[in-house]
Each structure stands twice: as structure tokens, then as C-alpha cells.
Amino acid sequence: MNELPSCPKCQSEYTYEDGNVYVCPVCAHEWTGEAEAGQQEEIKVYKDANGAVLNDGDAVTVIKDLKVKGTSSIVKRGTKVKNIRLIDGDHDIDCKIEGLGDMQLKSKFVKKL
């Protein structure tokens, strides 16, 4: 007998095959074998404006004057930001800028120190 994979969502062993899709009757999760393998291998790499790989805790410099939405403040070019945190989303750097407070930046507007 052919051994079917357990459900990746709830780990149930009662999965069944429906065409080229696996189905879990416990949580109703559907998946293909190729799709699950691709999701596990996918790791997001964050890069700065020069293509250097960024990591949590790095220090970066802002390469362009950036307007702060909702205020008249500006993050000046050359501002150094220490101890960044990488997050998912459009603005992928979470940081604290002295004088402005907590802020999120796009990695394309910074360079690694």
C-alpha cells in the first residue's frame, strides 16, 4: 500500500488523495506534494541598496532624505540607525531613530555599515 504524508497543518495521519491533491478530513487542509516542499525551503533574504545581506542587529545608514508620513519631520541622508529588526511587509526594517522614535524603513533606502 502507498504511504500518504501526514497533514502539514494539523499532523493528522488520516489524509487521502483526490486527483493530484492531498486532503485532510480533520482540518480540511488541501495541498500538493510540490507546493509544501517549496514552502519549507523558501527563506527571505533582505538586502540593502548595494545588495549586501542584512541581518537582525545590524547598523545601517539612510542613503536618501525620507519624509515621515503624517508629520513635517525628515529622516536626513546619512542618519545612522543601530540595532535593526527585520520584519515582513513593504517596510521591512523596524528600528528606533534618535529624535524621531520607532520607525519602519524600506531596505532599498539604507546601506549596511
UniProtKB/TrEMBL annotation:
It holds the Pfam family YjdM. Residues 3-32 form the Protein YjdM N-terminal domain. Residues 47-112 form the Protein YjdM C-terminal domain. InterPro entries: YjdM (IPR004624), YjdM_C (IPR013988), YjdM_N (IPR013987). Belongs to the YjdM family. This is Zinc ribbon domain-containing protein YjdM. The lineage of its organism: Bacteria, Bacillati, Bacillota, Bacilli, Bacillales.
